[in-house]
Please model this.
Amino acid sequence: MSFIELKDLTMNYGTRSVLAGVHLSVDEGEFVSVVGSSASGKSTLLKIAAGLMEATRGSVTMAGEPVKEFSRKAAFVFQNYSLLPWFSALENVRLAVEGAFPDWPKKRQTDQAARYLQMVGLGAALAKRPGQLSGGMRQRVAIARAFAVEPGILFLDEPFGALDALTRSTLQQELALLCTAVERPVTALMITNSVDEAILLSDRILALSRGPGATLSPSIAVPLAKPRSANLLMHDEGAARIRVRLAEFLIGASGGNSRTRQRGDQAMGKTVPVEA
Amino acid sequence: MMKLTLRNFAYSLVGIIALGALWWIASATFARDLPSPGKTWEESKVYVLQPLEKRGEMDQGIGRMAYYSLTRVAKGFLLAILIGTPLGFLLGSSNTFFRMFDPTIQVLRPISPLAWLPLGLVIFRQSEPAALFTIALCSMWPTVINTMSGVRAMPEDYRNVAKVLQLSRWKTLTKVSIPATIPYIFTGYRLSLGLAWLVIVACEMLTGTPGIGGFLWQEYNSLIYSHILMCILTIGVVGFTLDRLMGIVETRLRVV
Model:
């Protein structure tokens, strides 16, 4: 049974149509990614799914219940870290733990926060403020904050979009490991503009066509063993086939003329071997 | 803010000397009643050199006079920020509230202390509460307006974080909204304090209470003009110091 289900979502900003009839479901323990170029309505889709925004039409249900506001069972990782700069890394995470487990004694909340910060390799930076941390470290804190609440579902909004390429690949790899390291399988819905990032982390990938009036492609399964490594995926034939199919959706959906095609390629941050 | 270096100090001396020269020229030529800088110092040095001396109710050292005024300002300012900060928060966070009260505030804001004080006297029948009323009413607005803009300028991200972290209303206020707005609030406080100090002189002049403004007015009526100049200089120096002190607090908070 699907854990979260989006039915016929339509979103208009005034007269501008952003999403036009989007269907999507994520099963329990499944990691699903939506790939799309920038300004295609990805963030809107995710915010609606998470209950941070209301759709013009359509329904979102989580575990059978309609989603009206951000669920207690969920966690969200923002693209721009969104840490509170006046708190230390530990306080930032502890605040989330406190929100999710208000009945726990303070000591246990702090321990939980510290444990997850150690898992992302920040055991030595607990007392540091976000301003004293690099972009990569800040996003590690944000990831620790999301995992520390032991969420039923994890929403990831271009989690590495603000990072430089090198840090980005390191953190992708770390997230892949973290997802398999936690006790129970992670249910996650991620949106990204990187096809490779999606292949590295997901069980299933969908492409969002370019707006206005964006729709989702049929889903493409990624039947590769986890945790995966970016190095191996580069030469993996199965991954290459998925890359090609996604590229077809993303480029085809934009009309197929050479200008939009080029834009599509850039949006994925990588030259896609369409002829392969 | 300028750094406090010897070079900057030397530069700022130029302005002070230029002002002194202008003063001296004016007193020597067209403004015959204006005491020269030297005469002013001669006649008022007893107030400056024995700042805490008390010879009579309205004849006290400059330190004492400034102290009375500062106490009054502190009370009025405290009243202003106690009312102004929550008011600013409400205006910033509720659109309905803003639409209800913003027009009224815009009308009250430009009213001069000289207009409020008589009203204060009518309401409270005593000069002290009337003065506090006037200071609070006049100096409150920068705090209200800055707090309001601070709440409005809070990034959407912080609101989303508060939602995502499942923070209660109270927690959202104390852990997110207030810390995010503090730099704005303190800019408001600094401006309010400056205004309060401006207003105090007018209040004391009209009520004749002991303090730097009251003393100024009394000496004008007694035709001792050099003391007026001494009072003016003192008001300037005290106001400058207050502003700098608040400025330091403000910069500290901005770093966070």
Chain A touches chain B through 20 residues (CB under 8 Å).
